[in-house]
């Protein structure tokens, strides 16, 4: 069992924690979005479409680590920050497994994504190898409610990724250089998080409960991350390369709406574990997420009408402006789904995870079937599926809160 010297504080200010984490995550997200915009400008639509597909795979491949973060945070919060049993056993094996899986899938990815070589896939494997450690230490910091340190880890990773990726792409290394920056950022962030978390020793074995809990969380989170990124992969496969690049840039707006309010989920999750004031926490969190998404969608619409939508990126992205509010709505729906999914992880309710998997299947069927003739059709299919999923999730939650299960009879 891993020991820590500092317990979770018994009483903390929710607004102060949210403000600290929002500022840090805002800087980190700005670095990540800046990375996408700079790469779109330097690489052009065709090469950037390939990079965006690889970045989507990085997000999907980080799902086991994110599930581990949720379980570590949950158990750390329940144990008052004093225990983290079994995570060390999972971290090394998960990292090695992800890297091996990416390497074995390399030839298929080169063909499916129309890459010019296998070097970007090798950098993808190195980036994925660091994610379990990165998310495990983030779970430690989250469960102990050390949100300032958690924000510092995120900012460090985004800064290194942007700096190294920009330097290598400017030097002419193209998509492989950009992916090298991604791998460097993930590795440094993991090492910085390990330093800040200061575990005294890592457990060498994991209990059965760890494996089952992480596997259950992984199912729903994998479905969510695939749902948030499968449209970019399908667009790259079905659309021509220039249209796929335009879609990938529009999807950055969806990522902004999805990730920018993530600090809300991160801050309230340890409190959802405790079960006190769950209805109030969820309602307030949903209003914050929806308000940000509405503001982003309105801003995108105004920018398009004023002729300000992506004008500096070149004529290859012309015509994207009218779709930007649609992408903002997609990201907002995904952020609400993420809130519901983490509420299910906190309470060990798996129904939302199953609903996410069903929605993923529906979106793939829609896009692979009739709706892949244009970026607008792909985005419309994604929005319809996400909206239906969010509505279903809120209905399931309200039903459970209004009719809680009876306690088991001894």
Helix content bin: over 70%
Query: Which stretches are poorly predicted, pLDDT < 50 over at least 5 residues?
Result: 1-10, 200-206, 406-410
Largest sheet: none
Q: Give the overall form.
A: globular
Strand content: under 5%
Q: How many discrete structural domains?
A: 1
* Overall residue-averaged pLDDT value: 81
What do these coordinates show?
This protein has one domain. 79% of the residues lie in helices and 0% in strands. The chain has 14 helices and no strands. Helix 3 runs antiparallel to helix 5, helix 8 packs parallel to helix 13 (351-368) and helix 10 (262-274) packs parallel to helix 12 (324-347). The protein is globular and about 50 Å long. Residues 1-10, 200-206 and 406-410 have low confidence and may be disordered.
Compact overview of the structure:
This protein has 410 residues and is mainly alpha-helical. The chain has helices spanning 14-61, 63-78, 87-104, 106-112, 119-143, 147-170, 174-197, 208-238, 241-259, 262-274, 278-305, 324-347, 351-368, 375-402.
